[in-house]
């Protein structure tokens, strides 16, 4: 059985097609938990008929206070997970019919090789679509120039390639998360770090969702190969430095929480990375080269060397 966690906030325009896409999955061995984050539109009104129609399969929960972010909302839902696997769902995407089936199959392969007590994570590619679901790119990994093999700790400290709305984790990984981390950049990034240090990460090359781009979505896909996008990023110096600082804080909290469980080489890497801001410029660059702490793609690496 799979527990699917969906967070929703003011999703009246998109939530119904998403729920329908889950109901239309070829693998129906799931339960859906929907947590509304104090919506002020008709979101709850639109969800309630599904809860009445499928009381054993769909549960609606309502926050008393707005959590402030999808990340915190997802972390707060993890105690609901009782079954072997957990998937994460944004309210504004659409799942392709075989998403659950294909992701479970890859998870089964990982479990057979590593055991069900090993923290495991599976993620997939995405098709990027506009707000009307017209496909803009059939592969977000290609359009964003992401490295599907970038699943080691040195890769994931500096760049996350796991998109939460494609992610499945097993119960062993859920149980390692613990209280909501204060400095986790996103829930998917934190879980990817856990899998990189203590388990395994698997990937499904096929796009399993239509990842809807619109003005209101919190995290969007950008064309990382475009010159205009990269020029704009280089111009946003303060934002670039803030993003870097967030990764240092995340590394520090991760190391503090899992210190006793970490392999010596991972502990060293986390300690060196979190202390980068206290080194001089030349030493920071030397550390990047020594530990291979580079993002994927020339433009991103040049940005790192400029802002580190």
From TrEMBL:
<feature type="domain" description="Glycosyltransferase 2-like">
    <location>
        <begin position="4"/>
        <end position="114"/>
    </location>
</feature>
<dbReference type="InterPro" id="IPR001173">
    <property type="entry name" value="Glyco_trans_2-like"/>
</dbReference>
<dbReference type="InterPro" id="IPR029044">
    <property type="entry name" value="Nucleotide-diphossugar_trans"/>
</dbReference>
<dbReference type="GO" id="GO:0016758">
    <property type="term" value="F:hexosyltransferase activity"/>
</dbReference>
<dbReference type="Pfam" id="PF00535">
    <property type="entry name" value="Glycos_transf_2"/>
</dbReference>
<keyword id="KW-0328">Glycosyltransferase</keyword>
<keyword id="KW-0808">Transferase</keyword>
<protein>
    <submittedName>
        <fullName>Glycosyltransferase family 2 protein</fullName>
        <ecNumber>2.4.-.-</ecNumber>
    </submittedName>
</protein>
